[in-house]
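My main concern about presentation is that the manuscript never shows what a single data entry looks like. The format is easy to grasp once an entry is in front of the reader. For illustration, here is how one protein appears when written out as sequence plus structure tokens:
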Amino acid sequence: MQLMTLADAIERHVRDGQSVALEGFTHLIPFAAGHEIIRQRRRDLHLIRMTPDLIYDQMIGMGCADRLTFSWGGNPGVGSLHRLRDA
């Protein structure tokens, strides 16, 4: 197994147009990975998540998403996902 930084992992394994699933709940939401995808300006991603939350809302707002597959959309802890609704 090769260890690498998160930035290197995203650069190496996440390409424009790919399907990406970032999972975690409450304190395990993968904000760092989502923010790195945004920083690296990945585009046209098919985002997959059981329940999209703030990080997916940010990724949509920053133009990373082309499609979104989810089972339920919302974030009851902090309110609506505005970019999800706009998309």
User: Anything to note?
Assistant: Residues 13 and 20 are 10 Å apart (CA to CA).
